[in-house]
Design goal:
The complex is a heterodimer of chains A (483) and B (534). By secondary structure, chain A is mainly α. Chain A is 76% helix and 0% strand. Chain A is built from 20 helices and no strands. Classes of the chains: A mainly alpha (483), B mainly alpha (534).
């Protein structure tokens, strides 16, 4: 393995973000009296800085984007897209946290530092082109996020969330690792492009299939698909709300990115083995996610089940991996999903000042009377989540439904559209509370940073819905090819 | 023609949207007077702008007119594509006409959150017009879905007692149908391009053009046509609504505010029948001609007519009564469409307009009474002809038009539909005719209970008669009823070419199907209803 000096250049974004995280930790220790708002602002700047570095690196190294370090790391367009998306979700989370963390009785320095480290883990994940580097970066992300879930360390619910997340997360990592070991044992390969050329004898075939299924199961844990979803509602409910919002987009998007890369690049030949499993899991996820969401009265739990359901929609795209279309659909959808789901969570944060407010749907009562712009924005996110045009959610779902039809899973497409219609019922419970109720719900706080996050999400949701062409054309160039 | 060069359809479609935006940003919500005035002006302007379409429309030309075409999402083949034929023209004019009345009739009925109310009405107007103008399936779906949102809020905020239930039921029912239609659209898209589910695609460039996909669909094998026919069927049938998908309608109609009911009855329900005429028939001719499919459709239509009328008969709430009568009337429209001949299809389209006028006016009338007495129960009234003679007169004219009395609009449409049905089967026409008898029964009985006799309830003793504004909202509808009743020829002229095209699309595709042998040549049937009226 030869490492050239210029290889390190490709790591500049990750290095920048790591350095910022360490700096933030040091600052928080050296100046304990520093205002937490200042630390938040600093961490937001470091995300922006990382994005700039990323842009420069991507532009400066048109060739030789990898794989480097012996095939561990690659900076293709696919990785680039997901890196921007991850930085977006980390940035939005920081904006949504500034007021929230300032009001909470816990120190802010480590909060922001952990958030940045999660970001580093995810940046590495989406660039991983070798099963080992993917696994290690996944663990980096996961460890930081377990701590974030338990950030309210004296709240029992937060502790419960952290513990559940950790135990189940560690278990799923074990499953994933076991699957990887089987695959390695049979093929002797770890690089994704090498694995694509893997040939198996009839004897090995079953064992290889088992390994692939275990890898799939481990990843399905991370994206919270049924039956590996049980941790999600509790973790979302117990975690600080900005962190729950973050979990629903950032790590999920990153997990989808590696799922896509592994199964699109390394295991397409085995689709006969995993296709039906994914179809069944998708069906179960759609049905259970939507039905369980119908029964929730707690908004965070409802959004948790809704995000489970959305993981199910995205699986329709995975089924379409035989052609690039399915992957394209997954990317469009994840982009749309980041905007709309974070936006909906951000409005929940708006309604809570300290600890856990905006728990019940009734906290949204009469929001239209008190703050019409907020209510209309929330309505936009709800419409988008339900897949009503012309919003980002519709464009995303359109791609996934088409991918499923194209892959020959018409029954699943029918199930998915009907599930999507049902989902309107629970989303619009919030709309009904906001617009029809006379009663006064929870107090609305004001925060410029959070408002900025909501505005970004709303603009993204609307723009992708009304004028998607630009985004679609860019994403079409982000399909990972043979590198 | 000059009008063909300017994007007149977009202008008509987006004037209400622009008006709504101006309302949002420039009118403080306390100033209800200017808000009402401005909304009325915008709706009136839109009506005026739509009239040149009627004048400039070339009745002899087949195909679409006033076409606007621009690329929207090239990577999917989606276009911004507007254009109308005679059928869309008629429904477009109905929309702008009823839209204006809906704004104008709400002055006193709506006293709360007025700004939001007029904004939603104007938005709804834009979405409805857009739906009728679309020539691209993707765009069509966008308008078709987004239309539900303002209606949901109109019912949910300004509706009656059970408005929450009615609003979400309306939304969910129609949404469930339309997502299946979306799958149908996607399937068509694949048939045109790469194929799916073992069907070989045609390998064309991706497009959602309605013209193109209609041609593609008509060439598909029967089996696939039937599948896709039913995918679209759910979208349209729920909207119509056909029996047994009608249960959302009485709730939505009854709970909606007056203007909402008027728009629902006059325009939204027509989206469903419009979908059948414009999409289902020309796209899936072989499916439509399959005997069992025709049988199912006609049976559901006839059940709708008779069952709807019988349920109407026993209603105690006036608004609910009129709501159920819609099920019966739209059953007629569906029967006309699936008679699959000129008389039936022209009659069906005409009856869509008639139902919009008559039922819209009936909802207005009930709304006027409700504003005065805050009840709609028939039992609370009696002898109203004495305190409210003008009101009683208007009500009588409209009721007669709704039950299909000659000289009024309802007669022309029902006659043509029955003629078309008779050409196919005596029993179709016979069963449908019982619906007309029942229709006369429920309306006359209603009229008798509400208006005749002594004033039984002292609360009704001093009810004020129609105000000038109320008369102004009703008079245009009454005039339209008489106009269509006495001189329907202009409408038939506009509808002739597109109806011929549809009949040709359906019949031209098959080699003498047995079920179709009895259909008269299209040209003979066309002028007949017009002659009969004169």
């Amino acid at each position: 393995m030869r490492v050239e000096a210029s290889d390190w250049l490709l790591l500049a974004p990750e290095l920048a973000l790591t350095a910022s995280g360490l700096l933030l930790l040091a600052l928080a220790t050296l100046f304990p009296k520093a205002k937490e708002e200042f630390l938040g602002f600093l961490s937001f700047l470091s995300v922006v800085f990382t994005a700039i570095v990323l842009t420069i690196v991507a532009a400066a190294a048109p060739r030789g984007k990898g794989p480097i370090f012996g095939g561990m790391f690659v900076l293709d367009n696919f990785a680039l897209f997901f890196k921007y998306l991850i930085l977006l979700s980390v940035g939005l989370t920081i904006l949504a946290s500034i007021q929230y963390v300032g009001a909470a009785a816990y120190p802010g320095g480590e909060y922001y530092a952990l958030l940045l480290f999660t970001g580093v883990g995810m940046l590495f994940m989406v660039s991983g082109s070798n099963l080992i580097s993917i696994y290690v970066s996944l663990e980096l992300m996961a460890l930081a996020s377990y701590v974030l879930a338990g950030y309210f360390k004296e709240e029992p619910r937060s502790m419960e969330a952290a513990l559940k997340y950790f135990v189940l997360g560690a278990f799923s990592s074990g499953v994933l690792l076991y699957g990887l070991s089987l695959v390695y044992g049979i093929s002797g390969r770890m690089g994704l492009t090498d694995l694509a050329q893997m040939t198996t004898t009839a004897d090995d075939r079953q064992l290889a299939g088992l390994g692939i299924l275990l890898v799939l199961a481990g990843l399905l844990f991370k994206i919270a698909a049924v039956p590996f979803h049980v941790w999600t509602p509790d973790v979302y409910e117990g975690s600080p709300t900005p962190i729950a919002a973050f979990f629903s987009v950032g790590p999920k998007v990153a997990a989808y990115a590696i799922l896509a890369r592994i199964f699109y690049v390394a295991f397409p030949k085995f689709q006969a083995d995993w296709g039906l499993v994914v179809a069944i899991v998708a069906a179960a996820t759609l049905i259970w996610g939507n039905l369980a969401a119908l029964l929730q009265t707690n908004v965070k739990r409802m959004l948790a089940y809704s995000s489970i359901a959305h993981a199910g929609y995205a699986l329709l795209g995975v089924l379409g991996f035989r052609t690039a279309y399915g992957l394209w659909g997954v990317m469009v959808y994840l982009l749309a999903y980041t905007f709309m789901n974070f936006g909906a969570f951000a409005l929940v944060i708006f309604l809570e000042t300290k600890g856990y407010a905006a728990e019940t749907v009734s906290d949204f009562n009469g929001l239209a009377r008190r703050n019409m712009p907020a209510a209309v924005t929330m309505l936009l996110f709800l419409l988008s989540l339900a897949g009503i045009p012309p919003t980002a959610g519709f464009i995303g779902k359109y791609y996934l439904f088409t991918a499923a039809m194209k892959a020959g899973y018409a029954w699943l497409a029918v199930l998915a559209v009907l599930a999507s219609a049902v989902s309107l019922f629970y989303y619009f419970r919030i709309a009904a509370a906001m617009f029809f109720s006379e009663a006064a719900g929870a107090r609305l706080q004001t925060s410029y940073a959070l408002t900025a996050a909501v505005v970004v999400c709303a603009a993204g949701t609307l723009l992708i819905g009304v004028a998607p062409e630009g985004v679609l054309a860019v994403l079409k160039n982000c399909i990972p090819g043979g590198y | 023609m000059n009008l063909q060069q300017i994007p007149i359809l977009s202008i008509v479609a987006y004037v209400p949207l622009a008006g709504a935006l101006l309302l949002i940003f420039f009118f403080p919500k306390e100033k209800t007077g200017p808000i009402k005035a401005f909304a009325t002006i915008v709706a009136g302007l839109d009506l005026l702008l739509s009239i040149p379409l009627w004048l400039a429309f070339d009745r002899a030309r087949a195909g679409y007119q006033f076409v606007e075409r621009a690329s929207w999402i090239p990577s999917l083949g989606v276009e911004y594509h507007f254009g109308i034929d005679g059928i869309s023209l008629v429904l477009l004019l109905l929309t702008t006409f009823v839209g204006f009345i809906a704004v104008y009739c709400s002055y006193t009925a709506i006293t709360e959150r007025q700004k939001e109310y007029y904004i939603l009405l104007l938005l709804l107007q834009t979405f409805m017009i857009g739906t009728f103008c679309c020539l691209d399936f993707f765009l069509f779906y966008v308008f078709w879905e987004i239309m539900l949102v303002p209606m949901y809020f109109l019912i949910g905020v300004w509706g009656g007692q059970r408005r929450l239930y009615a609003a979400i039921k309306f939304f969910l029912y129609t949404l469930a149908g339309s997502v299946l239609m979306l799958l149908g659209i996607i399937a068509l898209y694949f048939v045109n391009t790469t194929g799916f589910l073992g069907y070989r695609g045609l390998g064309n460039a991706p497009t959602f053009s309605i013209e193109r996909l209609t041609a593609v669909a008509a060439g598909m094998p029967v089996e696939l046509q039937i599948w896709l026919f039913f995918a679209f069927f759910f979208g349209f049938a729920i909207k119509v609504p056909m029996f047994p998908f009608h249960t959302w309608l009485p709730d939505a109609h009854t709970e909606a505010p007056t203007a909402g009911s008027v728009i629902l009855a006059a325009v939204l329900l027509k989206m469903g029948t419009y979908g059948f005429v414009r999409f289902s028939l020309p796209m899936f001719p072989q499916a439509v001609l399959t005997p069992w499919v025709t049988g199912v459709m006609v049976t559901l239509a006839i059940i709708g007519i008779v069952y709807g009328a019988m349920v109407t008969l026993v209603q105690k709430d006036m608004k609910k009564l009129i709501a159920y009568s819609s099920v019966s009337h739209l059953g007629f429209v569906m029967l006309g469409i699936f008679a699959l001949n000129m008389a039936g299809i022209q009659g069906a389209i005409l009856q869509m307009v008639n139902h919009g006028i008559s039922t819209g006016a009936l909802f207005l009338l009930v709304g006027i009474l409700y504003e005065r007495r805050h009840t709609r129960m028939i039992a609370d009234f009696g002898g109203l002809a004495r305190p409210m003679p003008l009101y009683a007169t208007y009500f009588l004219i409209i009721a007669l038009s709704s039950m299909g009395l000659p000289l009024l609009n309802g007669f022309i449409g029902e006659f043509a539909i029955l003629q078309g049905a008779f050409a196919r089967s005596f029993w179709w026409a016979f069963s449908a005719a019982t619906g007309i008898v029942l229709g006369a029964a429920y309306l006359l009985w209603l009229y008798q209970r509400v208006f005749f006799g002594e004033v039984s309830n002292p609360a009704n003793q001093n009810l004020s008669d129609l105000s000038p504004r109320e008369q102004l909202t009703l008079a245009p509808l009454v005039l339209a009823a008489f106009w269509i009743g006495l001189y329907p020829r202009p409408l038939f002229e506009v509808l002739r070419v597109p109806s011929e095209q549809i009949v040709r699309a359906v019949s031209g595709k098959t080699e003498t199907p047995p079920a179709f042998a009895a259909v008269p040549a299209p040209a003979d049937a066309a002028p007949a209803p017009a002659e009969a009226a004169r």
